[in-house]
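Example 9 (inverse folding). The structure is encoded as follows.
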């Protein structure tokens, strides 16, 4: 393997650094969205952050999970919190399912009986992809440069889906979706765009509240009697 290939991939995977075509490096801010804006992470909830309470909920996905355009306290992640539940928002703007699975693997505690994972699957075509110079395409632009057919898109999702379910446990995961391009039978809940933020692209406060209520119902049915 070419040393440049290993270097560029390792830099991205282990250090969150992108290597440019000219060899310069830039720290990857995963919260950079389509409009070039930057904003910090929301892993730490301002209220529901006690790591000792009996239920720890982690959410993964793209900017819809992050809550682009709404306050952190308006996101569905925050709305799932209570005195017995801490919440951790690992949504990241412009990312795909591969990033969500990678991030989940970094916070997953195999011995824990308190963790619940909610994965709201981004657009199926988003994934990390390098060009021949070792430069990473922006996930939302990938479909403009790489021609994926539906077979490959479905296979890519199915691989990630079964991998996580097998090693983490389907009983610990709630799968959500919002674009309707993947088989409905794999998902537990839909995130509907009942209102939008100012950009017209992301869920507004009403949509986050509705999604949170749907998730609360599932959490109550799946976990209330056992946790």
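The amino acid assigned to each position is listed next.
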């Amino acid at each position: 393997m070419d040393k440049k290939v290993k270097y560029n991939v390792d830099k991205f995977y282990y250090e969150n650094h992108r290597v440019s075509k000219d060899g310069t490096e830039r720290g990857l801010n995963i919260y950079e969205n389509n409009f070039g804006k930057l904003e910090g992470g929301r892993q730490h909830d301002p209220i529901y952050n006690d790591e000792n309470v009996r239920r720890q909920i982690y959410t993964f996905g793209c900017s819809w999970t992050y809550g682009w355009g709404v306050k952190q306290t308006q996101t569905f992640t925050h709305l799932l919190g209570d005195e017995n539940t801490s919440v951790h928002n690992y949504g990241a703007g412009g990312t795909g399912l591969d990033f969500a699975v990678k991030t989940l693997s970094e916070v997953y505690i195999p011995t824990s009986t308190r963790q619940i994972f909610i994965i709201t699957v981004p657009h199926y075509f988003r994934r990390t992809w390098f060009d021949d110079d070792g430069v990473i395409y922006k996930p939302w632009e990938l479909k403009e440069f790489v021609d994926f057919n539906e077979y490959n898109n479905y296979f890519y999702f199915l691989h990630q889906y079964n991998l996580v379910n097998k090693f983490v446990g389907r009983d610990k995961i709630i799968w959500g979706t919002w674009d309707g391009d993947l088989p409905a039978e794999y998902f537990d809940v839909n995130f509907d765009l009942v209102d939008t933020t100012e950009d017209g692209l992301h869920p507004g406060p009403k949509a986050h509240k509705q999604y949170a209520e749907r998730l609360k119902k599932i959490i109550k049915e799946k976990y209330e009697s056992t946790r």
